[in-house]
Amino acid sequence: MDLGAKVRYGSDVGTRNILALLLVGACQTPSVGHTGFGSMPEVSTAPAASTGGSSSGLGSSGTSTGEDSGSGSGSADSTSEPVGDLGDMPDFGNDSPVGCKGKIDFLFVISRELNMEYRQAQLAAAFPNFIDTIQSKFDDFDYHIMVVDGDGESENNETGWGNPACTKLCATPGCSVGDPCCYWNDPDQQGKPCCTAPDYPCQDLDLVTACDWAWGAGTVFPAGVSGEANKLCPIEGGRRYLVKGQSNLEDTFACIATVGASGWDSLGQALTAAMQSNINDPGGCNNGFLRKDALLMVTFIATSPDSKQSEGTPDQWAQAVLDAKTGDEKSVVMLSILNTEAQWKPSDRIGTLVKLFPYHHLEDALTADYRPAFVEAANLVETACAGFTPPPG
Questions:
Q1: How far is the C-alpha of 93 from the C-alpha of 71, rounded, in Å?
Q2: What angle do CA 354, 16, 7 make, to 5 degrees?
Q3: How far is 287 from 104, CA to CA, in rounded Å?
Q4: Per the confidence metrics, is the pTM higher than 0.90?
C-alpha cells in the first residue's frame, strides 16, 4: 500500500474522517499561518511591522528535558508499515526519471523547548559538512533553506515570537525583580533585571511583523531568553529563507537555526502550516520557498515527541506534505533527530510521521555528533533525486 493509501485508510480511528476534512480544505483555502486543524489569526500577505504580543507570563513551557521525553529501549507496534532497506540506487528501467538535478528545498523544523539550545548548537556544527556532502553529489546544487520553529501565534499570545514577558517589559526599561512592574518575585534575585536576557531586542520591536508570529513562517528574527540570536538574521533578498548564492551561508544558517528554548515544540502543526499553498504563494510569508520541480527534505529536531501539543495526527501532517508535493511521497526525504528506529514508540508522533515516507532516517537527539545522521540523509537525497520526476506544469 502506498503512502497516500496509508494516510487515507490508516488504522487510527480518526483517519476515517480525513477525506472529508481534505475535501473541505480543497474548497476553502486556509490563511497564511493556518495549520488546517484549528482557528488561527489570518495573515494573507507578508505584513508591515507589528510589535506582536502583550501578554504577561513566561514563554517557555519548562517541562521537557529530552532524556525522559520519548526515548525508549525498544519498539512497540506501529500503525505504519515498516520500510525496508533502500539498498543501492534503484533501477528505473528504460524510462529513466528526469531527476531533481540538484534542485532541493531544505526545511528544518526546530523545537523551542527546554535544552534545545544545545541541540541547535549541534545542528549548526553539523550543517557545513552536510551542505558540502550534498554539494559533492550534484554538479549544480540549487538550494532553498528555511527554518521553522514549533511556535505560532495563540489567542493569549503566550507563544509565537520571542519571550512575551520580556516583550511586555520593554515598556518599562530597567525593571528589576521586586519592582511592581516585575511579574515574578524571588527574594534571592532582588534588584536583578526582571527580563533575564540582557540583549533582548527591545530597540528592534518595530522590525517584528505578523509573519514572525505566524505558524509555519520562516524564522528570520529569533528572540528569547535561552540562547536565541536576539537579532534580525542577515538573509539576502528580503526572503524568509536562504537561496543559492547566500553570502556567509554557514553563519547565516546558524543565526536562523538558533531559535532558542523560550517556547514550544508543536512541530507537526508548524510543518502543516508551512506546507499550505497560500503561505508559499506570492504575497505569503514564505513566497516561493516550495518549488514543484524541487526535491523536499524535512529535518525535525526536538527533545520531546510532540505527543500532545500539535493539532492533528501524523497521518494528517503527512497528507499536508503529500498535497504540497502533488501526492509523490518519493519526492520527500525525512530526517528526525529525536529517537532512533530502535527507540521509537507510538508516543513519538514525529517519528511516526517520518516513518510514513519511504526515504527516511531517525537519529537519537542525545548523540554527540549529528554529522553521521546527515551523511545518511544526504545519501537518501541522492537516491530520491535520481528517481524524481517533476509534476507537469
A1: 41
A2: 25
A3: 16
A4: no
